[in-house]
Amino acid sequence: MTDTPFDWMAAANKKAKGKRPEYFDDPEDERMLSILMAVVGEVSVLRERMDTVERLLDAKGTISRDDIESYAPDKQAAYERGAMIREYIYRVMRGPHQMVQELEQVEPPVEEVSQELKEI
Amino acid sequence: MTKITPQDQKLDVAPPYNAVARHGVSPQPSHDEIARFDFLANFNKFLSGALGPGNKQTYDKRVLPGFEKEHGREPKDRFEIRHAMNEDPFHTFWSALKRNSMEMRQQNGRAMVLRQIDELNAKARQFNEGRDTLELHPEIDVPRYQSAVDIHCMPGSYHGEELAGDISAGANYDCGIFATTAGGLGALSDGGGQALVEWIKKERPGWEPRRVLDIGTTVGHNIVPLALAFPDCEFIAIDTAAPILRYAHARAQSLGATNIKFIQANAEDLSRWDDGAFDWVQTTMFLHETSGKALPKIITEGYRVLADNGLMLHLEQPEYSDAMPLFEQFLRDWDAFNNNEPFWSSMHALDMKTVMTEAGFDREELFESGVRAVVDREIFPEAPTGEDEDHGRAAYWHAYGAWKNADQMQEAAE
């Protein structure tokens, strides 16, 4: 048993030894992305929980917290939930995903297109 | 061409965390803890599959032309590519997302383990107390290559304790491998060990090693399947970190692998074992976590304790040979600098054949082979290789091996 109170929430947040790489010019952007990604993850968790509730209600009509905690999807449900998470990730990651598409297809600024259309 | 409607299409999604098998010291995940790993497993697939190819695009279209313009030549090594890529907005954003995914995996795993650490420690004690199959030696120092940084951003690394004598390091390491590999290592994250069993049964059918040494065993993922496959063989699994060994021992015992002795020891000095004491000496995904001077010492000591006709085998990611494009070398190096693997880059640039020859093997004894994780394909995916590969985490390894003095042994027998 633990004699002194152990704050597992604080302990879970321990930083790994080793200087963190800097990805952005502004260090605040590093923090903002960390917070944003944590929220992105938690929204996915909420969606999965809601899906569990809906499936259990469909099957049983009424449910308890224990039902939710012990829920294990069968193969088909597991696939559907995987597809749901995948769809969610594609939606929230639209920005970086479109960066890949921009790299594949370099486009002129719309201002240039605008000039062109004026002339044709 | 038949058209597949969106409804019929089988999407590439990660298996659910529910598919992870429980053993005697597994943390009990709540619904939301499962959901967190479900998110990360699928997010990592997205990072490698959907965003990863953008790295090559930006390199070919922006970074390489810019480099050539500035320097009048191509980059000469993977380091020059990395420095140039670290100035590119696509690559830095991708890296930042990936780093966050790694950090979230650690936080999520630690939160699950630490909230139930008292129960987990109690479970481990039931398997560990009074057993002579767990030998801890507090006089073994944590080597600098294990303490310089926390390897793969794992707070506290393998040797850290939150509470005296706890098993949190092992439990956290074990529970999150599913998320980082998107299930690629199977229900017990032991697809590497299962692959070793399959490989040896095919390579040398009927061979019954008497004693096997597993160096840098961590939680024993890759030795437990072998121990179960060779129940009459004695297995010795060593590591420098006590917390991980406490967990490894309890895990192995609970899975029925009672023929493994877990010993706290540093493989640079195996003097407690006689020459030729083992029929098989191996490491799996370990050598990249050592150092320039430690690695050859480990191989040399391993050679000494290996019996004639015995097998030395090391599983690693592929080495950076001259045949491997510099851009691929750079991608494979991501973990070195972004996921606290400081020896990764140098290790993969080593010519392992030379290291093994210098340890005592004849060049003709050496062999190389590819080993793919063996997992239940009904539930778990085959790890993608090629463009979608999650470099550094793909469940597909390069095996460096040798049968010690096998030719001489055969000649003597004839």
Descriptive overview:
The complex is a heterodimer of chains A (120) and B (414). Chain A is 69% helix and 0% strand. Chain A is built from 6 helices and no strands. Chain A has helices spanning 8-12, 27-60, 65-69, 75-92, 94-104, 110-119. In chain A, helix 2 runs antiparallel to helix 4. Chain A is flat. Chain B is 44% helix and 12% strand. Chain B has 16 helices and 8 strands. Chain B has an 8-stranded mixed β-sheet, sandwiched between helices. In chain B, strand 5 (278-284), helix 11 (294-305) and strand 6 (306-316) form a beta-alpha-beta unit. The radius of gyration of chain B is 22 Å and the shape is globular. At the A-B interface, helix 1, helix 2, helix 4 and helix 5 of A face helix 1, helix 2 and helix 4 of B.
CATH class wording of chain B: Alpha Beta
Indicate the percent of residues in helices of chain B: 40-55%
Structural class of chain A: mainly alpha
Q: In total, how many beta strands of chain B?
A: 8
Low-confidence stretches of chain B: none
Q: At the fourth CATH level, what is the homologous superfamily of chain B?
A: Vaccinia Virus protein VP39
Strand content of chain A: under 5%
Overall tally of structural domains of chain A: 1
Short description:
By secondary structure, chain A is mostly helical.
Q: Layout of helices and strands, plus pairs?
A:
The complex is a heterodimer of chains A (120) and B (414).
Chain A: H1 8-12, H2 27-60, H3 65-69, H4 75-92, H5 94-104, H6 110-119
Chain B: H1 31-51, H2 53-71, H3 78-85, H4 89-114, H5 117-128, E1 134-135, H6 144-147, H7 168-181, H8 191-203, E2 211-215, H9 224-229, E3 234-239, H10 242-254, E4 260-264, E5 278-284, H11 294-305, E6 306-316, H12 326-332, H13 334-338, H14 344-349, H15 352-359, E7 366-372, E8 396-403, H16 406-413
Parallel strand pairs in B: 1-4, 2-3, 2-5, 3-4, 5-6
Antiparallel strand pairs in B: 6-8, 7-8
Helix pairs in contact in B: 1-4, 1-7, 3-12, 4-7, 5-10, 7-10, 11-15
